[in-house]
């Protein structure tokens, strides 16, 4: 089943599992459930779960739970996947809602599926501004995963794509770095909004004062309430014999809209859960308790490094 936390009134609701259907279904990845607030009127919400129909290459079942109706409804849809993409190789890495009527499921390798609730749950497919990475995931069973170098989120109503230019063809003379693209309001094209090289990060005084040398960041995450702000993870490790030793982990806050300003936060934990600090819940908590969030965001879980 599902647990829905309503931060506006500090309540939790339990929702039953999707009822067994007449056809076999399978999950589309590690996370494929989306919640949209206000979709059913003031104070209401909509829960959507997208699952593959096992007997079809591109057919999916969209299960919808409206808080006002308190029951599941299902809609079968043929998904407009590009040639060569089927249920077997489209895997959801992240999902979210935006625009009051759109649900989005993202495969960071292949693209995004958009569902427009106002058009009878019509689906469309959006290619990412960077093509599929040129590494074979099967060659890295414990190595690079999509979240290590890409992410997608809705920032102030606009869908944005953040990525390192690794595993893709770079422009002539282009150095390693990261960039943010913004999807147009009609979902027809991407435009590059921000760009930052690793050299810009390494040259920052705060980064240098942390003594991180030229360690490469990973796991880029977009701030959903501050346009141009991204978060990166830096792992400080060393090799002792044939063993890799973990020394420390740092969280970087990079303001790409403010001359690539960098803030460095040393973390106490050995694992940073990016889904939590990039969630709508975090944004709500910031709005309701700004002082609490300013004092605790990232700095409370570790030491902020200053020049």
UniProtKB/TrEMBL annotation:
Region (Disordered): 283-307
Protein name: DUF1618 domain-containing protein
Domain DUF1618: 105-231
Compositional bias (Basic and acidic residues): 283-294
One Pfam family this sequence matches: DUF1618
Protein origin, superkingdom: Eukaryota
Organism per entry: Triticum aestivum (Wheat)
